[in-house]
Amino acid sequence: MPDLEFLLTPSPAASEVLVCLELETSSQPGATGSDLLLFLPTWTPGSYLVREFSRHLSQVQAEDSDSGAILACKKASKNRFAVSCLASTRRVRLRYRVYAHELTVRTADVTGEHAFWNHACVLLWPVGGDTLTARITVDLPDGWDFACALRTTEPAGRAPTGVHRVALLAESMERAYDAPFLAGRLIRQRWQSRGIEHEVVLDGLATVPVPDKLLGDLQRVVETAAAVFQGQLPYARYSFLCLFTADGHGGLEHSDSTVLLAARTSLHSERGYREFLALAAHELFHAWNVKRMRPVEFWRYDYENENYTRLLWLLEGWTAYYDDLLCFRAGLTSRADYLGVLAKSIQTLSGNPGRLRLSLADSSYDAWIRLYRPDENTRNSSQNYYVNGSIAAMCMDLHVRRRTQGKRSLDDVLRRLFDATYGAGRGLTEEDVWAAFATEADDTVAQQVRQLVNECFDPELAPLLHAFGVKLDTRETERPYLGLQFDSGQTTVASVTAGSPASAAGLQAGDEILAIDSLRVDSSRWQDVFQAVARVDQPLQVLISRRGVVQTRSATPAKGPGTVALAVDEKANEEATALREAWLPAPAAPPKS
Ligand SMILES: [Zn+2]
Q: Which of 57, 78, 132, 245 lies at 20 to 30 Å from 221 by C-alpha?
């Protein structure tokens, strides 16, 4: 018998999940007899922000399962509930409702079309009961299919008429919270990779057809990811759960599955499809990097409080580097396209001066208050450990390859780290990372890596890429530049780049730009007007409205950061060409095995 017995009933009309939980009073470790203490996570691993899922819980009620006597149930903190049991109470039944109308990869959403939830949003769990097992029985409308990484088991009790009852078994709290649930009229495709069953489950496509090549392309992504780890897949079964909607893009990693959210039309545009495959590759790669190999601070997640780590540049940055790289290695992206994606990341990096203030490691630590809570100053005060972390990963890869004359790469470092930490049943530390670089390359490279992540991030990319037969050119630097970002569809300043002409002119976030050089602007005309009148080193009159007061500022455009372009250097010497062809072989060679 499982320790916890959940019955979940989606209620589309109310956008709710109705939950019934039964458990023995003795199931709470260390319980003093009279009280049961349960909690709901405040966040979910992979998304480092306290989201307060318990704000969606209501009408939490408890009763003695045997006698039906009502038991007092009180909030014990924002996300904890205390049930006062009677001396005779052996088994408790809790009922509560969870509001579910937020379609993201980490929340819960129940409509007439589908039911999706992350179990961290819906399952109350006894405090300290990490090792308790749970049966999660779900009542679904007839005709609905479901997908979840948990294994199925016999449902508890008999389903009401017109209801399709399914049941899942979670061997522990982490297993339950790590396995999102999706149900509806799903499209499902299955295949075997390396003898392991994989599936892609598609929800919300409406009238959009599934591309014929999707299954084959995902299969290649899986094979290419496995090749990094010498062909070993770390799970017994894997599901890509795909939520399609009008727009949006994101994913959340789990040990044996992932949830991807994308625009349904993206599957049929060249760029959208490429981005979808890169997203799938990203989340799959997390099955190794984050879900298994993970920092010692994440070894046992604290679901109620912030879990700090200085390693998100490795967890997310390396994964962001590998997602596009895997698509390239799998032959799904051309080398020119891959270099285009890299160029875009370098462009983003160079336009955000916050990397000169806060290191990648410090930005990782501060994820909870910075990356997930961006504001007008974020780009000037912090850095994105995804984009910049992917460029740092590329630098690390190239440093290792150059130092070892192409004999070793970041693949070897990653494999060593994986084996040395997860393989040994323990969490990852920063010291492990430096040691892996020292072993696979040498101390000099290990020191370069430490500097990349612990100091301001300003790598010399052009010479590094030059050593790999890749040219980095910056074009259009003659274009006048102010350093302003606008709110979408407006000329209200969203942020001002530190050190830019706009900053020197005293322009601030929140200022609405009304005119430049007496010409009225709005969001649709801004580009044309700016291009017509702005000249490098010539002052512009900028008419603004600041907090309701109209005033004039003078701003002098400077030369801009330009547009970064990467291309194969056909004139590279033999050594550089050999390094490049080992890194980015053309045409894409089959993955290393
Ligand atoms: Zn990620």
A: 245
